[in-house]
Amino acid sequence: MAAAAELTPIEYISHHLSFFATPVGSGGFWTLHLDTLAVSLAVGVLGIGFLWWVVRGASAGVPNRRQAFVELAFEFVTSQAKTVFHHGDLHRFVAPTALTVFVWVLLMNAMDFLPVDWVALGTHHLSAHGFRIVPTADVNTTFALALTVWALMIYFNVAVKGLGGWLHELACAPFGIRPWWAAPFLVVFNLLFNFIEYVSKPLSHSLRLFGNMYAGEIIFLLLWIWAAHATFTGGFFSALGGVVSLLASIALGLGWAIFHILIVVLQAFIFMMLTVVYIALAHEHH
């Protein structure tokens, strides 16, 4: 936290919100955030690898605590997916995908609980700013996840309805036209409405997760600044004021951390459920 006392609040926040980036080719749009990629891959391998390890050692007898935990997680995800998806074998693709999305997003969100200065101390030898540790506070991560779900939605639309059936649906829904050439002006409205719907889905899917996690990251940084300045600069007007400020910042930080647990889990759950909803909608005929 000493770093927070040595920098102005704006410098401190900018310092911790800088990415460990490397340009590809001419740079610009083609820039890789290496910290986001490294943390995303690491927590993904750890989370999915843990589930795989537990399932490999699962037995039909009395489950141990690890197996019971994984079974509870799988049953929870499956029961939630069942309320939305009613179009065939849930366990063939949808339930495993939902579990993967939930675990991965949950672990990426949970990185927000690590103190940023401690993480920076361990990663400053790789980057001047250290690692930005929360992948879902990077809009590139949430957009990549949302676009992957969007691509799956397009795939299932074509796989279930056929290319012709899907294109017919785009031209003839939501305003029903039988046949489509009977009212060509309505085709234009149908295509416009469907275009807006298809564009808004990945936007809302990604920005909801990004906005919540980015806001949480900012609030944690502000609380760290308050605690650091109360500790190292004497607080507001006196030593007593510094002690009061420090205790208040600790209380607020603890309270926000407890509340943030709900946000971390809830945002992972919402992202998972929207994934299942979009896949389920792709199976429906209009």
Question: TL;DR of this structure?
Answer:
The protein has 286 residues and is mainly α.
Give an overview in words:
By secondary structure, this protein is mostly helical. The protein has one domain. Helix content is 72%, strand content 2%. It is built from nine helices and two strands. It has a two-stranded antiparallel ribbon with strand order 1-2. A hairpin with a 7-residue loop joins strand 1 (21-23) and strand 2. Helix 2 crosses helix 8 and helix 7 packs antiparallel against helix 8 (184-232). The longest helix is centred in the last third of the chain and has 49 residues, at 184-232. The chain starts with a helix and ends with a helix. Residues 233-238 have low confidence and may be disordered.
Instruction: Profile the largest sheet.
Output: 2 strands, antiparallel
Broad structural category: mainly alpha
Rg, Cα atoms, Å? 24 Å
Provide the residue-averaged pLDDT.
81
What's the helix and strand layout?
Blueprint: H1 2-6, H2 9-16, E1 21-23, E2 31-33, H3 34-56, H4 65-82, H5 94-110, H6 116-123, H7 139-172, H8 184-232, H9 239-283
Antiparallel strand pairs: 1-2
Helix pairs in contact: 2-8, 3-5, 4-5, 5-9, 7-8, 7-9, 8-9
List keywords for this structure.
single chain, 286 residues, mainly alpha, 72% helix
